[in-house]
Amino acid sequence: MKKVGKEKGITIWGPVDPPEKLGIYGSYVAVDWDNCIGCGKCVEICPINVFEWRETPSHPTSEKKPLPARELSCIECYRCESECPVMAIRVVFGGAPPWQKAVLSMMFAQIFIGIIYGTMFGPYYGLRIPLYAGWLVTVVGLPFFLATAIYFPRMGKPQDGKSSMDVTAVVDTGLYGIVRHPQYLGCIMMMLASILVSQHWLSLVVGVPIAFWIYSEIPKEEEGLVLKFGDEYRDYMGRVPRMNIVLGLLNYFKRESNK
Q: What is the pTM of this model?
């Protein structure tokens, strides 16, 4: 389908020929307004109020439809999709809003440019011990950095036809059995590695604020995960620390020894 317009920033996919044919509203939480019967089930069960009502007079199936006005806030619990009686909703991982994508792009640039700079031209201040420490942090941090790509496709039970980020199960093994957010820890470790390897002031200026921002985002993500998985995630939070890798390793080996 083609993009034919927007309403409240939400993309409309057509063709559209009102009032009989309205198309699909939304990209990450997509609602087929032509199949939607306006029962309101999605509006009732959404835990974070993604949907708003819109009047659709003279449409054949209903006189009002749910608009996914806050689709980027979706926590991918899939309740609206699974409980829609006419299968008029499809939810896919939406990723970050534009400003967050820009920050993440800066993070990737800081990591890769800093490490490449330090490797090709040598560290800015020429200090060998921080350079070696940076390489050690790189080796340790890289698996954490890649954790979602490693574990989600196999253990997150993503839905058929969707990305590996559309998980439907709590991943609590491997690195996720050590810390709850290995991917965030990996990002912070790789930014630290970039600072140590490059030893350049620009890497420090870019990396430190982004590292604090990443950590500040974790509580908000966990609120969504609790809403999505309920007691299963609360139990996971009680067993595995958020980011403390030392405590996580101690708890992990303690659990393994008790098996």
A: 0.88
- Mean pLDDT for each consecutive 10-residue tract of the chain (259 residues)? 93 95 96 97 96 96 96 93 96 85 95 96 95 97 97 92 91 96 97 98 97 95 94 96 95 86
Closest CA to 138 of 193, 217, 205, 56: 193
Structure tokens of 250? 């101690």
Who contacts 238 (Cβ-Cβ below 8 Å, separation ≥6)?
A: none
Q: Please give the helix or strand (H or E) that residue 191 lies within, else none.
A: helix 182-198
Same domain, 204 and 118: yes
Domains: count for the chain: 2
CATH code, domain with 58: 3.30.70.20
Among 91, 125, 142, the domain boundary falls at 91
Asked if residues 72 and 28 have their Cβ atoms less than 8 Å apart, the reply is yes
